[in-house]
Design a protein that fits this description.
Blueprint: H1 2-20, H2 34-42, H3 48-74, E1 82-84, E2 90-92, H4 93-115, H5 121-136, H6 144-158, H7 164-190, H8 220-229, H9 236-239, H10 253-278, H11 283-288, H12 290-313, H13 321-341, E3 358-364, E4 367-374, E5 379-385, E6 422-426, E7 433-434, E8 436-438, E9 441-450, E10 454-461, E11 464-471, H14 479-482, H15 489-502, H16 522-537, E12 542-546, H17 551-566, E13 570-572, E14 580-583, H18 587-601, E15 611-613, H19 620-623, E16 629-633, H20 640-652, H21 660-670, E17 679-685, E18 714-718
Parallel strand pairs: 12-13, 12-14, 14-15
Antiparallel strand pairs: 1-2, 3-4, 4-5, 5-9, 6-7, 6-10, 8-9, 10-11, 16-17, 17-18
Helix pairs in contact: 1-3, 1-6, 1-7, 1-10, 2-20, 3-4, 3-6, 3-7, 3-13, 4-5, 4-7, 5-6, 6-7, 7-10, 7-13, 10-12, 12-13, 15-20, 15-21, 16-17
Length: about 725
C-alpha cells in the first residue's frame, strides 16, 4: 500500500518538479493593456492549419506522455489479451496501439510545425524522439521517464503565452490533464469488456441435477454426498474470492481511480483559477466569445471525465467500465484541445468601467473593427468605429464600410463590406444610429444615449451583429466629459486613444477627463506667440484668424490678435491675396477653412503670406486639405518616438491618424518630455512614385498613403530653428 501511494504521488510530483525547475518562466506577471488586446485581436490571426497543428501536437503529447508515465509507475503485466512492448514487457493491445498512434501524431505534427518555421530543429527532434521512446518503452518502468519529460514539454507549450502565476496555472493544468488522460487510457485497456453474466444463455434449458453428460465429474447427488462428508470450512473464507482471482478487477484499479480523480480535481482547479487570473473580464465575454467558451470547455470537460470515473466505480457501472473509461478518455483529450485553442484566440477586450473609455473590437464580415466608447456615463456617449467609406452626416444611402489595414501594413485597405454600419442600445429604446464620417477625422462616428448601469451596445457592420458590454454607473457626465459628444469629439477621442496606447501594464485605465479643446495650454500658447513673432518679423502685415467657440480656440484667437496688433499687423476678416491665414479652431472647422482657401487659390491669389496652423491641428484629416502649411511643434514627427506612437495607435485602432493631441497624451505616459522651445514645421505633399515603405516605417513616403503617417503622401519637416516661446 505504501509503495502504491508513493508511485501515485510521483505521477504528479515528478513532472511538476521538472516544470518548476525552469525558474525563469515564473518571473514576473504580464498584464495586457486594452490597447494591446485590441492590437492583438486586429492583427493577423492563426489560420485553421496552424490551429489544427497546435491542437494535434498538444493533445498527442498529453496522451503519449500520460500513458507512458502512468503505466510506467502504476501499470501491471497483462499476459492475457496483451501484446509485448517493443523493448520488453507486456501491454494491453489497445493501450499499445493508442500509445503508438499518439506518438505518430506527435511526430507528424512536430515535423510539420518545424517546416513552417515555428520550432527549432533541436526542439522538433527532442519532441519526436521522446514520443517514440515513450511508446517503445511501454510495458517497462522506464517509460515513466520520457512520459514525465513529455508532460513537461506540454506544460511549457501550453503556457508559452503566459508568465508568472498564469504560466504556473497553465503548467499545472497541463500536467494534471496529462495524468488524467493517461490514467483513463490505462484503465480503459485493463477494464473488463461488458458482457452477459455467467449462467445459461438465453434460450438454453438448465441442466437438471444428475442428468449431465458423462464427463467424469460426479453427478449432483454424488457431489451432495461428498460435500456432506467433507470437513467444514468457515463461511467467510469462501464467501468472496480473492481480488487477484477476479478477472474483472485490476490489482491497482483503486490507485488508478484515486490518481485520476485527484488529477482531474487539480486540472479543474487550475482551469478555474486561470479564468480568474487571465480570462475574460465579464460574464458576457465568458459565454459569448470563442476565448471564453474554450476556457469553459477546458474546465467542464475534466469534470465530465471525473464523473465517468465515479460512474465506473459504482456497482452498476463495473460491467461497462471499459466503455465509460473510453468515453472519459476522449473527453479528457477534448479538454486539452480546448486549452490548446486558447493561445490561438484573441483575448476579449477589457470590461467596462464608468467614466473610463472602452476600447474593444467587433466583427465585420471576415474582418474585425475597433470600437471606442466614451465617456461611459449615462446619457449621450460617443461611439467611434474604425474603417473607411462611411457616408457624410445626414445620408443613409448604405455606403459600404471598408476596414483599413494595420499601421504597418502600408496602403492595403482590405475588402469592402456589403452593408453600412450602425449602433443601437440594448434593450432597444430608440432606432439604430448609423455611423457617419466627420470632417477632419477618419472612421465612423455616432452618438447614442446609454442608460444608467450595465447594458450592451449592438454594433452592426458587414452583415455581422456584435454586442459590446457597457457600464455607465449612476453619476451623470460632467460638462467636461460632455465635450466628447460635441464638435470637438474626434480630437477628444484621439487624445483618449493616446492615453490608452500610452498606458503601461499595471496602470489604471485613464479616465475620460478633459478634452484638449477645453483649455489653451501654456505650451500651445508659447508656440502661437513664437509663430506670430516669426511671421511679422518676416514682413507679414495682414493676418486673418479663423476660430470657433471652444474655450481653447477663443483664448488662442484673442492671443493671436493681440500679438499681431502689437506687432503692427492688420487684422482681416475675409481671405485676400496678401494676408497670412492663422487657423486656431478645432479639426472640423479647420478642414473646411483649408478646403475653401485651397479652392479659392485655384482661381485667384489667396493668403500669399502663408497658412499657419495651431499645434493641435497636425493630423492627416486637416493638413492634407491644403497644399502646404506651417505648424509650430514641440516635437519632431520624424523622430523615432513619434513614429513609434504612430505605429502603436494605428495598430490599436486601424486608420487612426497620429495627432498632436494624441502624441502629447502618449508622451506623458511614456515619460517622453516635449521640447521647451517650439520649432516651425512645414507640412506638404510629396509625390514619390514607385516607392513603398519598409515594414514598420510610418513616414508616409509611399504611393498608397499609409493611414498611420503624420502626412499621408507627404512629409512634415522642420523649417526653422527652435523659437523663443515667451
Amino acid at each position: 500500500m505504501r509503495r502504491g501511494r508513493a508511485a501515485a504521488a510521483a505521477v504528479v510530483v515528478l513532472p511538476l518538479a521538472l516544470v518548476a525547475s525552469g525558474g525563469t518562466a515564473l518571473a514576473g506577471p504580464v498584464v495586457v493593456t486594452p490597447a494591446a488586446r485590441a492590437a492583438a485581436a486586429l492583427g493577423e490571426q492563426a489560420g485553421p492549419a496552424v490551429v489544427l497543428l497546435r491542437v494535434a501536437l498538444l493533445a498527442g503529447t498529453a496522451l503519449a506522455g500520460g500513458i507512458a508515465l502512468v503505466h510506467g509507475l502504476l501499470g501491471r503485466r497483462a499476459p492475457q489479451g496483451s501484446s509485448r512492448g517493443l523493448l520488453g514487457g507486456h501491454v494491453p493491445r489497445g493501450l499499445l496501439v493508442t500509445a503508438w498512434v499518439a506518438a505518430g501524431v506527435v511526430a507528424a505534427a512536430a515535423e510539420i510545425t518545424h517546416l513552417t518555421g515555428s520550432v527549432s530543429v533541436l526542439g522538433t527532434v527532442a519532441h519526436v524522439v521522446l514520443a517514440l521512446v515513450a511508446a517503445a518503452l511501454l510495458g517497462t518502468r522506464w517509460s515513466a521517464v520520457p512520459g514525465a519529460v513529455l508532460l513537461v514539454l506540454l506544460a511549457a507549450q501550453l503556457g508559452s503565452i503566459h508568465t508568472g502565476l498564469a504560466f504556473a496555472l497553465d503548467a499545472t493544468y497541463a500536467v494534471a490533464s496529462g495524468v488524467l488522460v493517461g490514467a483513463t487510457a490505462v484503465a480503459a485497456a485493463g477494464a473488463r469488456r461488458a458482457g452477459p453474466a455467467p449462467g445459461p444463455r438465453a434460450g438454453e434449458p438448465a441442466v437438471p441435477a444428475g442428468s449431465g453428460p458423462a464427463t467424469g465429474a460426479p453427478s449432483a447427488g454424488l457431489r451432495s454426498r461428498a460435500a456432506a462428508e467433507a470437513p467444514t470450512v468457515p463461511f467467510g473464507a469462501v464467501a468472496v474470492p480473492e481480488k487477484a482471482d477476479r478477472p474483472d478487477v485490476h490489482p491497482r484499479s483503486g490507485v488508478l481511480a484515486r490518481v485520476a480523480i485527484a488529477a482531474g480535481a487539480v486540472a479543474v482547479g487550475a482551469g478555474v483559477a486561470q479564468l480568474v487570473v487571465s480570462g475574460p473580464d465579464t460574464t458576457h465575454d465568458l459565454t459569448g466569445s470563442g476565448y471564453g467558451l474554450a476556457g469553459l470547455a477546458a474546465v467542464a470537460l475534466p469534470v465530465l471525465v471525473m464523473a465517468g470515473w465515479a460512474a465506473a466505480l459504482l456497482p452498476a457501472g463495473r460491467l461497462r467500465a471499459r466503455e465509460l473509461h473510453r468515453i472519459a478518455g476522449v473527453t479528457g483529450v477534448a479538454g486539452i484541445a480546448a486549452a490548446a485553442l486558447l493561445a490561438t484566440l484573441p483575448l476579449p477586450g477589457p470590461g467596462p468601467e464608468p467614466g473610463r473609455p472602452l476600447l474593444r473590437t467587433v466583427g465585420a464580415g471576415a474582418d474585425r473593427l475597433a470600437v471606442l466608447v466614451a465617456p461611459m456615463r449615462p446619457g449621450p456617449n460617443l461611439v467611434r468605429l474604425s474603417g473607411t467609406g462611411y457616408p457624410p452626416p445626414g445620408t443613409t444611402d448604405g455606403t459600404a464600410v471598408q476596414p483599413v489595414a494595420l499601421a504597418t501594413g502600408g496602403h492595403e485597405h482590405g475588402p469592402t463590406l456589403p452593408t453600412a454600419a450602425s449602433v443601437s442600445t440594448d434593450p432597444t429604446s430608440a432606432p439604430a444610429v448609423p455611423f457617419t464620417a466627420r470632417d477632419g477625422a477618419a472612421g465612423g462616428w455616432a452618438v447614442v444615449d446609454l442608460p444608467a448601469g450595465a447594458s450592451t451596445l449592438t454594433v452592426s457592420a458587414g452583415g455581422v451583429t456584435s454586442t459590446v458590454p457597457v457600464d455607465t454607473g449612476s453619476a451623470a457626465a460632467t460638462p467636461v466629459e460632455g465635450a466628447l459628444t460635441g464638435p470637438d469629439g474626434p480630437e477628444c477621442a484621439a487624445a483618449l486613444l493616446g492615453d490608452l496606447v500610452g498606458q503601461r501594464p499595471g496602470d489604471a485605465t485613464p479616465e475620460a477627463g478633459t478634452c484638449p479643446s477645453d483649455t489653451l495650454s501654456e505650451a500651445d500658447a508659447g508656440a502661437l506667440r513664437a509663430t506670430i513673432r516669426t511671421l511679422t518679423d518676416h514682413g507679414v502685415r495682414s493676418v486673418r484668424v479663423v476660430a470657433d467657440d471652444s474655450p481653447r480656440s477663443l483664448a488662442a484667437a484673442e492671443l493671436v490678435r493681440t500679438r499681431a496688433t502689437e506687432a503692427g499687423a492688420r487684422l482681416v476678416e475675409r481671405p485676400d491675396a496678401d494676408s497670412a491665414l492663422i487657423v486656431v479652431s478645432g479639426w472640423a472647422p479647420a478642414a473646411a477653412t483649408l478646403r475653401e482657401a485651397s479652392a479659392r487659390a485655384l482661381e485667384t491669389p489667396t493668403h500669399l503670406g502663408g497658412t499657419y496652423l495651431a499645434p493641435w491641428l497636425l493630423t492627416a484629416g486637416v493638413v492634407t486639405r491644403t497644399s502646404s502649411s506651417v505648424v509650430p511643434l514641440a516635437f519632431n514627427p520624424q523622430d523615432q518616438l513619434a513614429k513609434r506612437y504612430a505605429g502603436e495607435v494605428g495598430a490599436a485602432f486601424p486608420g487612426e491618424a497620429p495627432s498632436t493631441s494624441g502624441y502629447v497624451r502618449w508622451a506623458a505616459h511614456s515619460g517622453v518630455p516635449l521640447d521647451e522651445r517650439p520649432a516651425l514645421f512645414g507640412a506638404a505633399p510629396v509625390d514619390v512614385p514607385m516607392t513603398v515603405n519598409a515594414p514598420g516605417d510610418t513616414d508616409g513616403h509611399h504611393g498608397g498613403g499609409n493611414p498611420a503617417a503624420w502626412f499621408p503622401h507627404g512629409t512634415v519637416v522642420p523649417v526653422s530653428a527652435p523659437l523663443d516661446p515667451s
